[in-house]
Design brief:
The protein is of the alpha/beta class. The chain has a single domain, classed as Alpha-Beta Barrel (TIM Barrel). The protein has twelve helices and eight strands. It has an eight-stranded parallel β-barrel with strand order 1-2-3-4-5-6-7-8, surrounded by five helices. Helix 2 runs parallel beside helix 3, helix 5 runs parallel beside helix 6 and helix 10 crosses helix 11.
Length: about 300
């Protein structure tokens, strides 16, 4: 389903994000987990993208398999780095031929194994250029072309310390044709509410979907800060995790924190919640149960 139709249908969207594993065996296990999430009836699922890395083809294969073998709407990530115009065209043509309707357009970071990578060789230096190009591709089954999402950063973009200019850059991506914004993960809802208000002041009117990632281990919490490029871990959460004797207890704390976040976000009219699953569904399922619903269709109806 086209993302525009999803937002027209669902007052609040609920979605999950996965990353492509590096082995065939892990890929099969992940696909089984993704297929099992059909019972939660998410609005869509997305798969991350390692441009220039070993997972690039696995992203393509996984997205197309989700499209063909499940009833889920698949959104593929696509980054500017490590791509010529010909490669971008080939990727989008393949998705169009496979029935993929939605892309999350990202600037991206060069793969760690490519030192001193020359970005001038890339077709697009910034995500707004990629958004424009995706929107120009009309060879999909829907006359509107691909649905396009872009990233937002409630705690601030790591590459732009000037928060005023940051909103200008986000507005450029939206004006280039983005249908919605999906935020980086955060742990303090007040950061999102401030971000949402600044988007409104900047004239940004597209839906904003929030990114939520429950803490499930002490080591994982540290990796989250790395993945989110400096995500702030509130002292209250650090204190709660510090009291835990093992990761089982940490998981319970993390699920409780994420549940409270989601309940507050729903109460304050959030447009969508996007769960960063780290390829595990247990924590997400528990959050759903804590919210008192069986599937996202019930949440949408509520």
């Amino acid at each position: 389903m086209h993302i525009q139709d999803i937002f027209a249908q669902d007052a609040t969207t609920f979605s999950f994000e996965f990353f492509p594993p590096k082995t065939d065996e892990a890929s099969e296990e992940l696909f089984r987990n993704i297929a099992a999430l059909q019972t939660l009836k998410p609005s869509f699922v997305s798969v991350t993208y390692g441009a220039g890395g070993s997972t690039r083809e696995r992203t393509h294969d996984l997205i197309i398999r989700i499209q063909k073998e499940t009833n889920l709407t698949a959104v593929s990530h696509l980054t500017c780095v490590c791509h010529s115009l010909e490669e971008m065209t080939s990727i989008l043509d393949r998705y169009a031929a496979s029935g993929i309707e939605n892309i999350l357009a990202l600037g991206g970071d060069p793969p760690k194994n490519l030192e001193n990578f020359d970005r001038t060789k890339d077709a697009f230096q910034y995500a707004d250029g990629l958004v424009k190009f995706i929107r120009s591709r009309t060879n999909v089954k829907d006359r509107r072309g691909f649905g396009v999402g872009v990233a937002g950063f409630p705690e601030g973009h790591p590459g732009c310390p000037n928060r005023i200019k940051e909103m200008d850059h986000l507005k450029q991506k939206v004006d280039a044709g983005a249908d919605y914004i999906c935020t980086q993960l955060f742990f303090e809802n007040r950061d999102f509410y401030d971000f949402r208000e600044r988007c409104h002041l900047a004239g940004i009117r597209v839906p904003i979907v929030v990114g939520i990632m429950p803490v499930t281990s002490k080591s994982g919490m540290i990796r989250m800060a790395d993945l989110a490029l400096g995500a702030r871990i509130p002292a209250k959460l650090l204190r709660a995790v510090g009291r835990c004797e093992d990761d089982s207890a940490v998981t319970r704390v993390g699920i409780s924190w994420a549940t409270e976040q989601c309940a507050d976000l729903l109460h304050n009219g959030v447009r969508g919640i996007h769960f960063y699953t780290l390829n595990k569904s247990d924590a997400t399922r528990q959050i759903y149960e804590n919210l008192g619903v069986k599937d996202s269709a019930a949440l949408r109806a509520g």
